[in-house]
Design goal:
The chain is an alpha/beta fold and about 700 residues long. Helix content is about 40%, strand content about 20%. Bound molecules: 4'-deoxy-4'-aminopyridoxal-5'-phosphate.
């Protein structure tokens, strides 16, 4: 028996949700036209009008006329109860209809069961799932527009999200439609919905100026395709209308139905995970008792778990993902390299992608850097810089230089060397006896009383006294990430660089977290015009695809290792997978994407959108400080805003916020009391809004404010 059932071949997405910019724009007509068109292509189409108002009574039962039109076009005979589970007589919003009439719900046979007070999205989902199992595709018509309230708790947008379907917007063709369509698009995107396009309905036989110009304006301003312009008809016929809709284009835009693991398989995996896998930075006692989230697939900025839940990847899968998951160009680059060679060693041999990548990395790095040494994680990139700096000093006439200057709250990785230059007690204290000693200097943390000037004063004092013993200084440029996104004051890094030069100490810039666009520029050092002697990069280097890291250094350092074989000046370091061709090929393509998709330019409005959204957190009574640099942000929660008293660890304040967010379809991982937001650079502004607003709401829910 195979361990996993083979995935079935992809079939079209289970459905499409059709909404309107308003009521009476022709949603039912366009949905019916699509049903007719799909049917004509030989597809088995199901339809749904889950909530209908203005229904008529026939033989004591309420009947939705819209549902009937849809069923007729699709040519299927599903029970009315299934096609339209919630039907109301008054022609008003469902929320109002619920309060006006003591509506009775019915069982599958149409028998009255009990009075209903709310519209259950779960029940609609169950009906949808039944239809989706039966048909190749199900067209679901909404009611009114996206923000129409279904009941006190949910809107049409919530229903669309619950069904997890792509959206098609139907709008009228003439004057006023630009505003309505753009508003609907904005609402859809801020709700995290995926809109595939717009169909304009009811264009006059002799189109007015606005009817002629609207499609192009909507296309440009909404960044959305117009997938049909349906004319007014003397005798409206769905199948005639279908010829004005780009049916093939719509079909191609419906993503493939994702093969979901059967529940027993999901449960089996979760059981085995708890029994076998030891998770990093995770208290396993708690993990074993909880229900693990196991990712099965991903697309763009979204992850999907084995239970079929979808999450916005708000921390870029631990700060690594840049261009989104399954970016077609990265996938292709990986596949193409796979057809050549998956791995060959760099110890005493070369490979093509590692050469090309080194060349490209040096083009984006500060110009003093001329050599690239590969490894496979941020920790190793730093470890290598430390060893190189140390060995350089040893074999180039400065043997007393054996120590490193590093900062309080720094994080440079988990290996013994990188932990030695770290400064987060919670992670590092226990290893004290294992670590080599250096000089630890306070880093700026204005919110907790250490200014940039305080830090620099302490740094210069240490340098003045110990510069002859210091091989290097290690710093996270612009932001200390792992300690909670502590942003350095402007000019601080530049001053650190100046002091290193003044005292002849190697500057090691650890850009593992901040590199590759994270802070708004390709590298963080650029922003303060700092030229380090060593530059450590990892995480985003491969776009979040494969483990890869690099330590870049100068020609001077490189030359300090040259000599005859017997001189033992060789850098005796290298891992089995150093310079892995698959990882290098993807990293090379990632740099091309930066240029091709103008990633850095497009990032600027996103950074501003994030800044704008973060403002709303500042006044929250349990938010001490909000920090942002580029597309990385930290929201520090405090028990008491006046005194800045932190929440005790056992309160798990930020962990609880992230747990609430999971139920809202967002995945974040906090650091201590800091909520961290580091989405993929590919996130769009609406998604940023969704992410931030839900986070603020979750903080409110957790803290009771
Ligand atoms: N340096 C910095 C600044 C980091 O943020 C990290 C990881 N968070 C590392 C080094 C270590 O990287 P890795 O986890 O890939 O070893």
């Amino acid at each position: 028996m195979p361990r996993f059932s083979r995935p079935a071949p992809p079939v079209p997405c289970p459905g499409l949700f059709i909404t309107g910019t308003d009521t009476e724009v022709g949603k039912t007509f366009v949905t019916a036209a699509l049903a007719a068109a799909f049917r004509r292509r030989g597809m088995d189409v199901g339809v749904m009008k889950p909530v209908a108002t203005g229904c008529l009574k026939e033989n004591g039962l309420l009947v939705s006329e819209d549902a009937r039109v849809l069923t007729a076009s699709s040519g299927v005979a599903d029970p009315h109860e299934l096609v339209s589970p919630y039907r109301f007589e008054p022609p008003v919003a469902p929320l109002v209809a619920l309060t006006l009439t003591p509506t009775l719900s019915r069982d599958g046979g149409g028998n009255r069961v009990r009075a209903i007070k709310e519209i259950s999205l779960d029940r609609i989902k169950q009906s949808f799932d039944m239809l989706a199992r039966k048909h190749e595709i199900v067209l679901v018509e909404g009611i009114g527009g996206l923000l129409v309230p279904l009941d006190k708790k949910s809107t049409v947008a919530d229903l669309a999200r619950r069904l997890d379907l792509p959206i098609l917007i139907v709008a009228r063709a003439g004057l006023g439609t630009i505003n309505h369509t753009l508003l609907t698009l904005k609402a859809a995107r801020s709700e995290g919905l995926n809109v595939i396009g717009v169909v304009l309905n009811g264009r006059s036989a002799t189109p007015s100026l606005s009817e002629r110009t609207n499609p192009d304006v909507i296309r440009r301003l909404g960044d959305i395709p117009i997938l049909g312009i349906v004319p007014q008809m003397a005798k409206p016929s769905p199948s005639t209308a279908a010829s004005f809709i780009e049916v093939e284009e719509i079909l191609s835009r419906l993503k493939k139905k994702e093969e979901r693991l059967p529940l027993p398989e999901a449960k089996r995996l979760s059981r085995i995970d708890r029994k076998t896998v030891w998770h990093p930075f995770t208290q396993m006692q708690e993990w074993e008792q909880g229900e693990p989230l196991i990712v099965e697939s991903a697309q763009g900025v979204y992850l999907r778990d084995t239970r079929g839940n979808k999450y916005l990847d708000g921390v870029s899968s631990l700060w690594v993902n840049l261009h989104g998951h399954r970016h077609p160009d990265l996938d292709r680059a990986l596949r193409e390299q796979l057809e050549k060679v998956a791995h060959s060693t760099l110890l005493g041999a070369g490979n093509i992608p590692s050469i090309e990548l080194a060349d490209e990395l040096l083009k984006v790095a500060p110009q003093n850097l001329k050599r690239v040494f590969y490894s496979d994680s941020g920790s190793t990139a730093v470890e290598i810089a430390l060893k190189m700096a140390f060995q350089y000093c040893q074999q180039n006439g400065q043997p007393r230089r054996k120590k490193f200057i590093h900062f309080v709250n720094a994080y440079h990785g988990d290996t013994v060397g990188s932990v030695s230059v770290g400064g987060i007690d919670l992670f590092h204290q226990v290893y004290g006896p294992l670590l080599f000693k250096g000089f630890k200097v306070p880093a700026p943390y204005p919110y907790r009383g250490v200014s940039g000037a305080d830090s620099l004063r302490a740094l210069e004092k240490v340098m003045r006294k110990h510069h002859r013993e210091a091989a290097g200084l290690v710093v996270e440029p612009l932001v200390q990430g792992a300690s909670g996104m502590i942003v350095q004051p402007k000019g601080w890094l530049k001053e650190v660089g100046r002091l290193c030069r003044k005292y002849g100490i190697f500057l090691i810039a650890d850009e593992v977290a901040v590199g590759f666009g994270r802070t708004g520029t390709m590298l963080a050092c650029e922003q303060e015009n700092v030229r380090p002697d060593f530059l450590c990069v990892a995480k985003g280097i491969s776009g979040g695809y494969l483990p890869l890291a690099a330590t870049l250094t100068t020609e001077k350092v490189y030359k300090g290792f040259l000599g005859p074989y017997a001189s033992s000046r060789t850098f005796f370091h290298g891992h089995s997978y150093t310079g892995n061709p698959l990882a290098c090929a993807v990293a090379l393509e990632s740099l091309k994407i930066f240029r091709r998709e103008k990633v850095l330019k497009n990032l600027q409005p996103k950074i501003r959108a994030l800044a704008w959204e973060l403002k709303a957190f500042e006044s929250h009574p349990h938010v001490g400080e909000v920090r942002q640099r580029g597309l990385m942000a930290g929201i520090e929660l405090v028990a008491d805003k006046k005194t800045a008293a932190p929440y005790p660890l056992e309160k798990k304040a930020s962990i609880r916020v992230c747990q609430v967010l999971r139920t809202r379809g967002i995945l974040l991982r906090p650091l201590g009391n800091v909520i961290v937001i580091i989405p993929p650079l590919a996130i769009n502004q609406e998604e940023i809004r969704f992410l931030c607003r839900e986070t603020l709401a979750a903080i409110g829910k957790t803290t009771g404010h």
